[in-house]
Every structure is written in structure tokens, then in C-alpha cells.
Amino acid sequence: MYLSSLLLLPLIGSAVIAALPAGHTLLAKQVALGTSVLTAILGIAMALQFDRGVGTFQFVESHEWITSFGVKYGLGIDGTGLVLILMALILAPIVILASWNEGEGGRFSQKAFFALLLVLETFMVGVFAATDVFLFYVFFEAMLIPVYFLIGSFGGPNRSYAAVKFLLYSLLGGLLMLAAVIGLYVLTKSQFGAPTFDVTELGALNIDQNLQRWLFLGFFIAFAIKAPMWPLHTWLPDAASAATPGTAILLIGVLDKVGTYGMIRYCLPLFPDAAHFFAPTIVVLAVISIIYGAILAIGQKDLKRLIAFTSISHFGFIVLGIFAMTSTAGAGATLYMFNHGFSTAALFMVAGWMITRRNSSTIADFGGLQRVTPVMAWMFFLAGMSSLALPGLSSFVSEVLVLVGSYQTFPVAAIISTVAIVLAALYILIVVQRSLHGPTAPGNESLPDLTTRERVAIAPVIAIIIFLGFVPSVLLNVINPTVTHTLTQVHAIEPTPTAGE
Amino acid sequence: MNFVAPVINYSQILPILIVLGTALLGVIVEAFFARDRRYQIQVPLSIAGLVVAFLWILKIHATTAITAESAVAIDGPALVLQGAIVILGIAGLLLIAERKLDSAGDAFAAQAAAIPGSEAERTATLAKLTQTEVFPLTLFAIAGMMLFPAANDLVTMFVALVYQGAPTPVTAFMAACTKVAAFGAFARLFYVGLSGARWDWRPMLTVIAIVTMVLGALWALTQTDIKRMLAYSSVAHSGFILTGIVATNKAGLSGTLFYLVTYGFTTIGAFAIVTLVRNASGEATHISGYAGLGKRSPWIAALLSLFLLALAGIPLTSGFVAKFAVFSAAYESGSTLLVIFGVLTSAIAAFFYIRLIVLMYFQDPEESGPTVAAAPLMTTAAIALCATVTLVLGILPNSLVHVIDAASRFVF
Predict the structure, then answer these.
(1) pTM for this model (two decimals)
(2) How many domains does chain A have?
(3) Which residue among A2, A291, B3, B186 is least enclosed by CB atoms within 10 Å?
(4) Chain B contacts in chain A segment 70-129 (CB below 8 A)
């Protein structure tokens, strides 16, 4: 019942907040923080009982739901699901603490902001825990509603446009996926005699090559919009720069992972032949995303847009790792998803604090922060280093694993992608230099440094980034059996390592 | 010449008879009671009649028979649709009966013969000369609609059509109930009447379904009046419903029935809210009037959003389950093209529904914008009923799906 409790707890918290009389803003925040901390503790307790040797689903729950469609309320997690749920559950209280005052100046009360955040947390857990494709789809689509209101009601000047663009892109992707889900439904009905959406059963389907490719595309395009991959990425910079930093963390750090998670969970095991067929094309798109995101990040003048473009580059790495279909790259991709969540969170948190202090998100307005606000500057520096995958920080391990692993199957792609390491150094060091060093920009002389609340919020993020930089095995031990299991489902042939490497 | 009395299984058509009987009672009330007391009698009488009819439908469901000398077929699908029409009729009647919204009384002319806007009309209004014959007339219309999906031969169908010509005063009621009735009849025609020639009709109906979906969605996209938007979008929904009919399988039939029932409730709910958003001259139907509604009346905006999301087919609402049901049935029958067009037009439809939500939540209200009337009791009841059905059938559709699945067999 762990998973159901994780779903229910934030929902209860959100109902409590909604029921509070108007004006009890502080109490609403405390309830939100309390609920999310409680949920995180429960999630960690679950993680401690997770059997690391097993690559299949654990903590399985299954109940009949819509019987005539064969839909079940089916939950369960494997290593990938566990890692992503943990990421979401740990980030939620951090985001709530970090964006303590972000609901101010929104179109609606701060109460609504925190109630929506908790509803979103429920859907985030649900989408990673669902083992029934229909249930997954329900969470996948329902998740859009709270995010839409979070962006559109509490963001910056461009919020309404950004929220609508986000929603329409996602809805279009979702509807294409719906067509593919319907395809699966009809196939199970004719091949198994009764419809089912259970992912553990769907693997046994015998789908002819042509249909497999179409169904694969239905799922993949939806996930590529979410992930976001070039050329379907254009909604992300708008959404990220219009959203409050807290929403942006959940949007890019967690929600976008649903795209890459979906590729691992559905695209590979359900349509293995199509996955092999499209892999070269997707790898090319991934490499374009990696390079394109990095180059555009260098040119950004806006802090939040810069972080958004770096993420497009990072998501390229994750997709590359997934479709390289080797165990090293696969493990690297899953680890990358987790690490990217925290390094993006750190970047957006500090950027958000810088922006509210300076009341501007233009990079040129900052400068010399190192002297004025040393703690904030150091945190930004560390977050930046994690983003460019400095050895010793968590992202380094995952990036190396992805590159080494994809070199085995797509050497050219891996080599081109290494260029992005140089580009990453450029985009991070340029923004670090412009905002932290040099003469203090006018208007910045008396900016306050991080408050205690802000320090408490960012401390765990930085701790995780450093800890996993040295001990990635904590997560890799959980991830590896799942990756192996997924790769057997795709019938991937592991290339034998060349001697002397 | 031998004249044999027709054999009629009265139990089967009792629901229709109950509604007709109530309507006649209503006429008698009109004739014998003083003008100022009629309203107090008509409203409970009409609703009681519909409730009794619904209870009878529950009692006889799962029975099938052809009665009235093969003119009326009361079978599973007919009963499901009749049940839906009766419940929708109750919601519609509540809206029609609402008198607390317009200071002038209700949405209808005080005296049918008075010229709109004339001195005579104003006098009539001031004298509170509102007429109550709308209640029995609505009941006649409901009875006609109940007959329509059950009509088993052309004459009966004609009769039903004539009944339908009776005034059906509220657009909501029209949009929801008549659609249920008409598609029910159409499904019967297609599944039973043309059963032998089904495969000849399919290509043509596929084209019609696609054209309906695309044109309806595009028309609705260009509307700036909420009522027109809802009306044109209902054309697109007709296309989706046709998708289920064209499937010509059991899943298609049950999907069509599910769609009809849930769509009826969602539409009535949406229209009920439209009646509440008013300015000096009555309902404010231009969509710009909805700007900032989320801030001024959060509840009304939230409920309208729920109905719009259901119309757009977002999961956790009944609209999603309905869409899934008809699209999967169409795909199962091999109409991949229909599914693809359905999905694409759904995206267009989602755009114009969501545009309204954007207006309500993300834009500031107009200076002289309309106000939201405090929802009076009967309207509240109608909206609550529709919202509950929309949510419950979105999250736990099992109950209705089972009833419909069991009922999805036309008598041949």
C-alpha cells in the first residue's frame, strides 16, 4: 500500500489547504510543507525496503477499475520508477520551501498555489508508479491541468501565452498517444481474448512490423514533446521563463522526465522491433538536441531561458543513452534523469532568488555578486559546475556512462556529443563570469544574501549532488537490474567490450 | 372486415405513458387552476412524473420486447436512452422552471401572442402573467423523444417527430435531449433497419462522420458567442458519436450510448452556467464577458471548466471515457482513418474549449462586464446533478458501462 499512500497523502494535504478559510496563508504553507515532508519520509521508507536484486516490479497493487475496458488500477515500481519517484518526492518539499513566497503577485491566492503543487505531486507519483497503460495515460494528461494553472496564474508577464502553448503541445502529443493506446487495446482484445493494459502482459503481444512502427511513433512523439527534443522543444523555454522558479523546477526537473521515462517503460519493451528501426534516427535527433541546446544556451540573455536550453541539451544526452541500448548507456540515462533533476533544481532555485532580489532576469543586470552575496554566489557556482558535469559532482558520472555506453553502438554520435562538454563549460562559465564576477553592477550593491530558509532549502540539493558524485553506486545498484531487464525485453545484443580499453 | 385490436404490452411502454399522462394532467391544471397557483403545481407535478417514469424504467430494464404491433421496440438500448432522456429532462425542467434569474419572470414570453418588446408584452410582464403551459409541453416533447429511439417503423418515427416539434424551449434541453433521441433512432436505423446493407452504408457514413467532425470543430473555432460555440461544437460531437455508430459492433453501440448519456449531462451543465452569467440585457453570451470569471466567481468558473474539460475529453471526466469508448470501437472495426481524424479534431476542439478557460482564469474582467447571478435553488440542483455525473462517470464509469453493455443489443 506504499504507492497508494504516496498518491493519497499529497491529495489529502491539498484538500486540507483548499478547505482552509481565506487569509490563512502561513498555515496553508505549513500544511503543504508538512505534507510533502511526510510523503518524502514515507517514500524513503519504501526505498529502504526495495529489493535491489530484482529487475521487475515491486510493491505491486492491482485492482479492477473499468472492467469492460480491462483497465486496472495497477501500481508498481522497478529501479527506474523508484529513482524517479524518490527524485519527485525529495524535490517537492524543497520546492515548497524554496518558493515560500512565490505565490505572491499571482492571479490567485497563495493557498491555491500550494494546493496545486500538492495535487501535482500526486500525479507525479502516479505517472511513475502506474503499471497500467490506461492509468498512466490518465495521470499523464491530468497532470497538465495543475501545471497549466501554476504557469498561467502565478508566472511572469508572458504566463498566459506560455501556459497555453505548453498545454496545446502536450495535448496534441497526448492525443497521438491516445490513438496508440487504443491500438494496443484492440490488439490485446483480439490476441488475448480480453482487453488489458497491464504492461507486464503487453510484452507478449505479437504486433506486425508496420503497425508496431505506427504505435511506437504515437507514444514516442508524445514523449519527445514532453522530454523536450528538438524540433518539438519550443514550448519549453517559454514555459520555463514564464513560470515561477518553483514551478520550473517541477516542470523541467520532474515532469519532463515523464517523457524519457515513457520511452524506457513503453517505447522500448512494447515495440522492440520498431525501437531498433527508429533508433538511428532518434539518436541523430538526440545529438542535434544536445548541440543545439548547448549553442542556444550560450546565446541567451535571460537567466531562466538559459537554464531551459541547457536542459534541452541534457535531455538529448538522456535520449541518446536510452536508444543506444547498451546497459552502460541505459544505466547512465536513468542516473542522468535523477541527477539532472537536482542540478536543474539547484540552478533554478538560486536563479529564482537572484531574480526576485534584483527584480530582473536579464543576465547583464547581475555582476559582482560574489562580493555582495557570497553564499548565493557559491551556490550558483556549484549548481553550474554540476550542470557542466564537473568530475566529483553527480552529473559527471551519468554523462560519462552515457557517452561510454553509446560509443559501443553509435560511436559517431558519441564523439559528436562530447563537443557538448566543451559547449557546456562555455555556457556555464560565461554566465558565472557575468553574474558573479567583475565589477558590481549598479543596483546590486545592497542585495541581501541567502536567508536561513533558503539555505535550508538548497543544502540537501547540494549535498545530494556531491554525495552522488562520489558514491553513484547507491543508485546504480538499484538501476542496473532494471536496465538489464529492459534490454532483454528489447532483445538488445550487448556488444563485447574491445580488449585493451 | 375484421378489425383486430392491437396487442400492446403496456408495462413496456408505461414510462412513455406516465410522461404523457403527466403532461395531460398538466393541461388539466392549466385549465382548472387560477393563474397564480399553476406554477406551484406544475413544477412538482412534472418532476414527479419524470421521477416515476424513471423508476419504472429501472424496474423493467433487462427486459426486451416488441410491442404495439411491432411499432415500438423496447429493448436495452431504448431503455438506456429513455432513462437518460428522463433524467436529462429533469435537469432541463429545473432550468426552465427557474424564475429567480430574470426580474421579468422567466426566459419565456409572458403572453405568447404579445409582440416582443411591445407595450402589451411589458404590461403582461408587469402583471406577472407568466404562462405555465411550458411544463406540459416540455413533457410532451420528452415523451416524444422517449418514443423516438424506440420507434420501430416509419409511422411511429413520424409521430415522434411531430411530438418533437412541440416547443422545446431551452437550448440546453434541445441540444442534449434531442441529440440523445435522434442518435438513438439513427443507431436503430443503422443497426436494425439497414442491418443487411450495413457494409454498403459504411463508407458513406465514414465520410459523413469525418466531415461532421472537421467542419463542426472548425466552425466552433471561429465563434465568439458561447452559445454558438457550444452549438457548433456539438456538431463536432455528433461526428464523434457517428464514429461509434459506424463501428457497427457491440463496442460501438455501447460506446455510442455511453457518449450520448454523458454528453447530455455535460452540455446541460454548461448551458445552465451560461444562464447565470448575465448583464443588463439578460444572458451575456459573448465570450469576452467570461474574462476574469475565475476571480469573480471561482465556483462557477470551476464548474464550467469541469464541463469544458469533459467536452474536450480530458481524463478523469466522463468525456474521456466516452471518447475512448467510441474511438476504440471504430479502430476495432478497422476504421483507423476515423480514429486519426477523431484525434486530430479533438485537438482542435480542445483548443477552443481551453481558450474559454484561459479567458476565465488568466484575463482581467472587462470594466462593464457581466455579473454572475447567485445561482438559485433549481439551477443549482441541475448544475450539481450534471457535475456529479460528469465527475463520477469519469472516475468510476463501471456502473453505467455495465448497464449499457448488458443493454447493448437491439432487438432484431
Answers:
(1) 0.82
(2) 1
(3) B3
(4) 107-108
